[in-house]
Fold:
Amino acid sequence: MRRSADPAVLIVCLSRRFGGAEVRVLQTAGALRGRCRHAVAVLEGSPLHRKLTEAGCPVLPFAYGRGDSRLFFALRRAIRSGNFSVVDAHNPQSQFWGLMAAASLRVPAMVSTVHSSYGQTDRGVKKVLYEGVLRLNRLFRCRFIAVSEAVRDYLPGLGIPSRSITLVHNAVPVAGGPVLSGSPAVKESLGWRGDDYLVTAVGRLEPVKGHAFLIKALGSAVRERPRLRCLFVGEGRLRPELEALARKMDLGRHARFMGFRDDVIDILRGSDAFCMPSLSEGLPYALLEACSLGLPVLASAVGGIARLIEDGRTGILVPPEDVEALSGGLCALIDDPGAAKAMGMAAFRMVQERFSPGWMLAQTLGVYGILDEQDERGLETYRGHL
Structure:
């Protein structure tokens, strides 16, 4: 779609955590600088609020809880006073309050960016509520952005017409070339030896991320491979339970929990491999970041992961919740470093070719309806190379 006159974009992300959706919002807001007037609506004091401010991006902070109905009126005032012509919402709370406010003002372009298949990541009341929000977005005649093929294929099951859905993959900058071997600094800072084999898992410590299965797999693998180490980067409600499981399995020397970190790329550069044992995923940024560094990947064959990683070529895929297969994958990585590096390099090349930030932005602008002629030519050139 061609660029509208004087477009103004409001991105809504009412989240208290910082994960893949928030990374995408941060990237998009930064890329919009100099292209059009824009702002990001956030919860005051959230990690995203802080990171956007540090990056110099325009922010509209709201001092309410994400379930507070006053958000509707506050967002409505912000949209009207800012004369925003595009509203793009990035999580269930944002898709409810933000797009309901936009619909009440008949904003020309309303976009619901969906990062995961709620039917797989959530259960019970939460599943019903979250999917209900997407059905409400459909009634608002929203456009939908799916971040992975798995999400794109999930949305029509909620009655969302395929013509309203655009697949726009997550993207990462290639971060300075592949890691040939993990820097010893990260390992040594944790009291480990520089020649230990470090597998890092990045993600929220929540049930859907499957970390308990990785801990159990590590417990099995270290019996014959004592140099194996596993680092968990991220916070979440399961942290005490996961730490207790690691202690129960006598993994004090083999597993560490670092909590939320701003220096994930540096930690990955100090790692030998990356593991994502999730039960469900869209297209996770952490996985793309690991691939952009050329790290060998061990991951569950679910959702967007199974579409991204080719087993045996760009990584090792295992069934979800399969401790034995995960343990075997860990052993395969440490036992054959040459094959592991070859898979990492193949993943590095794949990210270079398929997950350009410029491509993600151009596609997003197309959904917003604010492409200029140069953007359109770039999209056609890129499509010609697919």
